[in-house]
Design goal:
Length: about 375
């Protein structure tokens, strides 16, 4: 096991550090930058299904559901196809309206999650075209879908999903750009500049890992005794906030909630005092001014702000108690980049609390029960 951990203390840390490679591997053979194309046989062979779809329904659980939410932002923005994202467990029990004009995408690292599998079967029975985004090759979900794309993240051992999540976001980004280019909603110049930026994401993740690792470790020390956390983000980073909160709660057992930052004033603001740490994702591109006012509201109530900002940020940084800098990207890539320090934060808080990071209590890597 020590050899498999490759010198890291836990699989989770190893997997966090593998992300430049796992994202690169997920794009390899698909994103052909010098030809200016995205090759995805699973999509291309069924392009008419996607093109003529009334809507795309994404079903998943847990972290994969968070990836699905970001997929909704991506596909609606770049391909202009309506997307709905559902918890597989809710979808399957509510007699959903599905027709043969729907495309249902299931996202699952393990490819074995019982609720996702059952929801897919239901969609298939009702005539939808079903597509899988799985990490485990030849898994049950991969086998029952009409087509799919594997994430090539490699085996994920830590129960808390990290590299599978960013690989899922990579696939969803490729799908959104490919569909958008094909159906004419994403012009060639924008397509070219977006794929060049996507190609450079692994380098940016490397940069984030080396520039934030020690800093985040130190920040974590100050929150070992915390009992609650709020995670806030807007737009693409709202699901990233949900994911940051899930990472923290599942491995450190600290209660954490993710919220769209604007929803704060509809309830969670009542919780804010000097004992409430708030992680806020505040990149330049993506409603930055609105986030600035959210931070002002938090500071007026003495909340402790841990801000994830772009390099060179001044406004949010001036108010925050802790600042984590990440490189600037187009908004659609910011959840991939911002998730990395949030994974590290959850990891180190859990380690300092003496928790079993790779095998948290009550959780299984694949949830094969309903
Ligand atoms: C992630 O950290 C969790 N352990 C969990 O939410 C997980 O994402 C969920 O059970 C779905 O698993 P799947 O991707 O294998 O279907």
């Amino acid at each position: 096991e020590q050899i498999e951990k490759g010198g890291y203390e836990h699989f989770m840390l190893k997997e966090i550090f593998e992300q430049p490679k796992s994202i690169h591997d997920t794009m390899r053979g698909r994103l052909i930058l010098n030809e200016g194309v995205i090759k995805m046989a699973g999509i291309w062979d069924h392009i008419e299904k996607f093109k003529n779809a009334n809507r795309i329904i994404i079903i998943a659980c847990g972290t994969s559901w968070h990836a699905g939410l970001i997929g909704e932002y991506l596909i609606e923005e770049y391909a202009r196809v309506p997307v709905e994202v559902e918890y597989a467990s809710e979808f399957r029990y509510r007699n959903p309206i599905i027709t043969d004009k729907d495309v249902v995408i299931a996202i699952s690292q393990s490819g074995e999650t019982a609720d996702t599998m059952a929801a897919l079967k239901l969609a298939k029975e009702k005539g939808a075209f079903i597509y899988g985004i799985c990490n485990v090759v030849d898994s049950s979900i991969a086998r029952i879908t009409d087509a799919g794309s594997y994430t090539h993240a490699g085996p994920e051992i830590g129960v808390a999903s990290t590299k599978a999540f960013t690989a899922q976001l990579t696939i969803l980004t490729l799908i959104a750009f490919k569909l958008g280019k094909h159906n004419g909603n994403l012009g060639n110049a924008d397509f070219m500049s977006l794929i060049a930026e996507l190609d450079a994401i692994p380098k940016k993740i490397e940069e984030v890992l080396s520039s934030t690792h020690e800093l985040v470790q130190n920040i974590a020390k100050d929150f070992v005794g915390a009992t609650n956390f709020l995670y806030l983000g807007r737009g693409y980073n709202y699901p990233a906030a949900l994911e940051g909160a899930l990472k923290l709660k599942e491995i450190s057992y600290i209660h954490a909630e993710g919220y769209p930052a604007a929803e704060m004033k509809h309830g969670p603001i009542a919780l804010i005092d000097e004992n409430m740490p708030i992680v806020i994702i505040a990149p330049k591109k993506g409603h930055y001014d609105k986030i600035v006012s959210n931070v002002q509201e938090i500071k007026a109530r003495k909340g402790k702000v841990i801000a994830v900002v772009n390099k060179g940020d001044t406004q949010v940084s001036a108010m925050a108690d802790y600042v984590i800098e990440i490189p600037e990207t187009s908004e659609c890539f910011s959840p991939i980049v911002a998730s990395v320090p949030l994974q590290l934060l959850a990891y180190y808080i859990a380690v300092y609390r003496g928790a079993n990071v790779d095998q948290p209590r009550n959780l299984a890597k694949s949830v094969t029960v309903e």
